[in-house]
Design goal:
The chain is 44% helix and 14% strand. It is an alpha/beta fold and 347 residues long. It has a single domain, classed as Aldolase class I (TIM Barrel). The chain has a nine-stranded parallel sheet. A two-stranded antiparallel ribbon has the order 7-8.
Length: 347
Amino acid sequence: MGAKDVLSRKAGVITGDDVLKLFKYAQEKGFAIPAINVTSSSTVVAALEAARDKNSPIILQTSQGGAAYFAVRPSPSNACPDQNASIGGSIAAAHYIRSVAPLYNVPVVLHTDHCAKKLLPWLDGMMDADEAYFKEHGEPLFSSHMVKYNIETTAKYLKRAAPMKQWLEMEIGITGGEEDGVNNEDVDNNSWPEDIYEIYKTLSPISPYFSIAAGFGNVHGVYKPGNVKLQPVLLKKHQAFVKEQTKAKEEKPVFLVFHGGSGSSVDDFREAISYGVVKVNLDTDLQWAYLTGIRDYVLNKKDYIMNQVGNPDDRYYDPRVWVREGEKTMSKRIAIALDDFYTAGKL
């Protein structure tokens, strides 16, 4: 038996009860699903290729900046104010992923990442698109969204998402470091059991479709070994406290998310997964992996790509060749994560 056996939709973008079933299955079987920040059709393909080849589910997500990059190059006369570029880019990415994901025969959770207070207009625009898509198709355009603000605001958005059975992720505590223009260096990046229970107590009466990204020393970016002290054991305490307070039958009543996964040790990943983490965000490591394939290709073919005229083989500068090298190295790095998180072979 694999994850596909519990899903009504076996391949392509999944929503609603299928997302809930997938995350429950991940907790039961002790694995987590990597969440890949995608910024282009090329990075989407690299992630889907890894999932297909490893027989694994995958989460594809856009950040606000990554979404804008996916589709829009603003000009002085068309600056796309009021998050229009990010709204349009996210919607374009969603339709593209919905089109190609079934071709890879894997289930995909389509998510959006890092929506802080100042970015809430971006979320509003995407949820407008969700509701329009739901009216026509009976499901939201996106599988899930993430809110990085207070409990009251998250509850408001979960109430809006609930009729569509749309998943919502809330970050509590602050993930340190910097990513995609969001700088949280020099902050306390731990959360505490009482925090997690307060979120669970507020959100669970609204909808079961939510998860919590609980800080336990997480940091965005990659840092030298020893500079980041993760405390995955905090997640165990969170689960125990919520179970005690709610008298839950489940040992791990909360679906937890690991932010700032790049550069973390395999042991930290696996310990966190054992405490109920079902989603692990990866971005910086994959940016580097994508670059290395293109970098090495350019260095190896330098003598052939300095001039167009006289090049013995135009395939050396065909984007389908050198862009593909970045896809291959990114895909290989995702495959490593699928092994590290015990995701490989779970379909």
